[in-house]
Amino acid sequence: MSDVVIVGGGIVGLACAYETARAGMKVTLLEYGKTAMQATNAAAGMLAPMIESHGPGPMLDLGLRALHDMPEQVDELQQRCGFDLELRLHGILKVAFTEEQFAELRQRQAWLESCGHDVALLDGEQCREAAPRISERVIGGIYSASEGSVSNQMLALALERGAEALGVDIRQRAPAVGFTTGGERVTAVRTPDGDVGCDAVVIAAGARSGQIAARLSVNGSNPIPVRPIRGQMIALGGMSCPIRSVVWGPEGYLVPRANGLVFAGATVEDVGFRRRTTTAGLRAMRSMASRLVPQLRASQQRFDWAGLRPGTPDGLPIIGPMPAWLNVIAATGHFRNGILLGPITGRLVANGLGGDWSETSPEFSPGRFV
Ligand SMILES: Cc1cc2nc3c(=O)[nH]c(=O)nc-3n(C[C@H](O)[C@H](O)[C@H](O)COP(=O)(O)OP(=O)(O)OC[C@H]3O[C@@H](n4cnc5c(N)ncnc54)[C@H](O)[C@@H]3O)c2cc1C
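Above are the sequence and the flavin-adenine dinucleotide SMILES. Below is the predicted complex in structure-token form.
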């Protein structure tokens, strides 16, 4: 019998496991396959709440808080685990090639500045001073000095090791296939190897959260309408890394990684659960990279992959108690920002299980879909 059973071992489930165990709860985590091998492994690791924001609101607020907390969380995990999580807050540059694109960036910079956020407007020359190898065709951009990236793989591994050290029972190849219920409570999570009894359940199954949550559907409506949104990426190498920090263009981004590779991504495709890469998708990423940093034309394509982001109808994550159930929590739908938002989601869920949802925006509540 566990205090909490967490369904899903991506970054969100692992962070929930780590934080709930840290709060003193007895935790079991059920992972369908192998932990952190789905969207969490596919990500680029950017921490970019401002550069990626579409406007003020709870999403930007949560992202900023996540960015603020990240160095302390990473430091704590590094001390526990003894390896580098490659947190690099070296700034992010977003550039424009056309007047229309630059106008959109100017507008973004203006509202970010009016909200008190430190994002600078740069002309083409200033962009090339910030990132000397970017294209001569760049006419301007915006620069956020406090954003950057982390190794998504190392962060997930550290959360897993940290959770295990705190006594979390992490079960690989242990899919949740249903629930045993009593009244308005889930009393156990069903797996092919038997039931795992629990006081509370956290659904953190990424793009598949909707499928498992459908087992808890009341009146036929899906309480977690998450849909998979495919992203394809490539890793470029074979040359000394031409960029020091993250660069975004109108069609994608480049992330320099500690091992010298440049990750170039990502497509955004609504193609169901098809996780394979496509020739067209990979070619688009390759040409995006070369347009942004022409020197990358001479690079070698070392790896390619695709992952399924957990998307939601309104673009906001789903964090909070599930309507109609007294002890089921949703922690999913982080779409393009799950690496940034995973660790803070773990904290919000741990607080919520302790009875305090005051720091979680009601706009993230699964109740909004009922
Ligand atoms: C190409 C790409 C680039 C990205 N780049 C960034 C980025 O730069 N920065 C950023 O912040 N975010 C980025 N993201 C988004 C980020 O990767 C996701 O938001 C995040 O990984 C979601 O984490 P998760 O734990 O919810 O889902 P996942 O990592 O998908 O984990 C869900 C887990 O649940 C398991 N599961 C499913 N069903 C069951 C079941 N029935 N029982 C048990 N387990 C189950 C799955 O096997 C999986 O391991 C990117 C995503 C992609 C695809």
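The domain at 92-147+227-311 is CATH 3.30.9.10 (D-Amino Acid Oxidase; Chain A, domain 2).
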